[in-house]
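Hey, I'm writing a tutorial for new members on how sequence and structure tokens pair up, and I'd like a real worked example in the thread rather than a made-up one. If someone can provide the structure for the chain below, I'll link this post from the tutorial.
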Amino acid sequence: MQRPEPEPQSFDRVLSSMCTEPHPDARAAAERFLAANPGDPATYETVAALEERAVERLATLADHPTPADAAGYVTAGGTEANVQAVRSARNRHDARDVNVVAPESAHFSFTKAAELLDVELRTVPVDDDYRADTDAVAAAVDDATALVVGVAGTTEYGRVDPIPELAGIAGEAGARLHVDAAWGGFVLPFTDRDWSFDDAAVDTLTIDPHKFGQAPVPAGGLLAREDAALDALAVDTPYLESRSQATLTGTRSGAGVAGAVAAMDALWPDGYREAAERAADDAAWLAEELADRGYDVVDPELPLVAAAVPEPEFAALRDAGWKVSRTGAGELRVVCMPHVTRSALRALLDDLDRIRG
């Protein structure tokens, strides 16, 4: 008996994911380059040239001092980029046993990185507004600190850490600074927040086209201020036409590279600005609507809303088909991605009102 072909899940009720519907141009480009391997650029020259364009465009978003000469590559996602940033900092540090200092709001990929690379991960508290506590960071660093991590758009509350202050602490300790802007990187250029290469002495930065950038999955991004950060990752690849490789996964599909370039060509800057402004307006509106209903709401800084919705109501929303998640503290978490419309948020509130009776 022939089974029906499965269809992709609709994004209509997906409210907590940091991935979104790809731009049509990105979808088409991804299909064209599906079989090309940017992991061997000497053999697959066309997609290698596209990857250079992708890095230049990402570097432009992140205010790199020389975007055309920026070091970086298109990763599988933020996890790979964060692991590579830790690996590069470890390899460039003189100490034998190094540590990484990160706020407790940092992505769980840093826990993976610490385990994989055998480095100590020192997590420090956040302040009352969910940002890295700079006094705690300063107390945690020492001569063996290879990397200080700041987050520009935390996954739970959408907060931006005090990046310039963290850069100062890292510099005094002789450590590198990595900024994880995997989600926030395509929103922050249209704000007045300090987060980029131009705002502070950032050494490496994660920024993912497959999140707010509307590229197809997988398409993450790792950027570095200087070539030495990627040189520290390179290994010999004697049986390939390309004689060394700095990436983690090696063989990669060109779909992510081509899709990222196509999305950024179509949307930078006006399309991204419009999407970011619309998302910010929707997040502010939803936060106000939830507060008017008596819920405790975390004031949104970026387009992410967290509210203390009781467990029975949260479970009922899930039963009604809403794809929503919770923060570590248990709040309802809604990420206003480009596919999330005001009408979808109204429908969510209608269901919440019905559930409350």
